[in-house]
Amino acid sequence: MFFTNREEAGRLLAARLEKFRDRNPVILALPRGGLPVGYEIATTLDAPLDIILVRKIGAPGSPELAAGAVVDGDHPELILNQEVISILNIPDDFLEDRKKQQLIEIERRRELYLAGRPPISVEDRTAIVVDDGVATGSTVRAAVHALKRRKPKQVVIAVPVAPPETARQLAQEADEVICLDTPDPFYAIGVFYQDFAQLTDEDVIHILKMAEEKQQG
Questions:
Q1: pLDDT computed for residue 3 by the predictor
Q2: CA R_g for the chain
Q3: Residue 135: which residues within 8 A CB-CB, separation 6 or more?
Q4: How far is CA 69 from CA 26, 62, 128, 136, in A?
Q5: Is 83 exposed, middle or buried (CB count within 10 Å of its CB: 0-12, 13-18, 19+)?
Q6: What whole-number distance in Å separates Cα of residue 213 and Cα of residue 192?
Q7: Over the stretch 43-82, which tens digit does the pLDDT of each residue have?
């Protein structure tokens, strides 16, 4: 399956998520690429849209290979990919250094994107975690791990595309996984999009503002 852009992927996902409309859903997108996908879902389900801040820690010399991820919260957490760490023999001081760097970036994004607004409560609600695709799934797993501390009634992962094995692993982390396509072999996420342009901070702020205005209007 190929998508014209993230908006189309979001609309297609939204059609699969209709059953959650009456379960008091909150859409939680991973910035930046997850926001256009999440916006379409939030619009279709008439649900609030928020972000969940997660930053990948790339392996030394291979930044696209996730050695772990840092996730925001009252107690920020470092979720490690032990398999990658063991194979590459990544030292603890490297991981700790990268964790500090990513926490600084998370704080920058929180201030910029939310401007002091607290996270939307997910307690006793259906939390739908959205991204524009997953490869190893490390960042989404970290997001779900931290999200469970906020006591949602259920956690759903919704992504347009993922490798088959990653989709199976994610199914062990969430109550349900909605994935439109699990191609094998799997290449980079961007291969499955005609338009996979990178979003800016301004794009994220604009999308969040539009979603907020829809909820208020």
A1: 98
A2: 16
A3: 66, 162, 163, 166, 186, 188, 189
A4: 23, 14, 19, 11
A5: exposed
A6: 31
A7: 999 999 999 998 989 999 988 788 988 887 767 778 888 8
Structure tokens at 150: 């906020």
Map 89-119 to HEC letters.
CCCHHHHHHHHHHHHHHHHHHHHHHHCCCCC
3-state helix, strand, coil in the chain (%, to 5): 45, 25, 35
Q: Alpha helices, DSSP H only, in 137-200?
A: 138-147, 164-171
- Give the amino acid at 179: C
Q: Encode pLDDT of 113-152 as tens digits.
A: 998 889 999 999 999 999 999 988 888 998 998 899 899 9
Q: What gap in Å lies between CA 56 and CA 30, rounded to an integer?
A: 11
pTM exceeds 0.85, yes or no: yes
142 vs 102: CA distance, rounded Å: 14
Query: Whole-angstrom Cα distance, residue 133 to residue 181?
Result: 10
**The token pair that represents 202 in the structure block:** 């301004």
3-state DSSP assignment of residue 160: strand
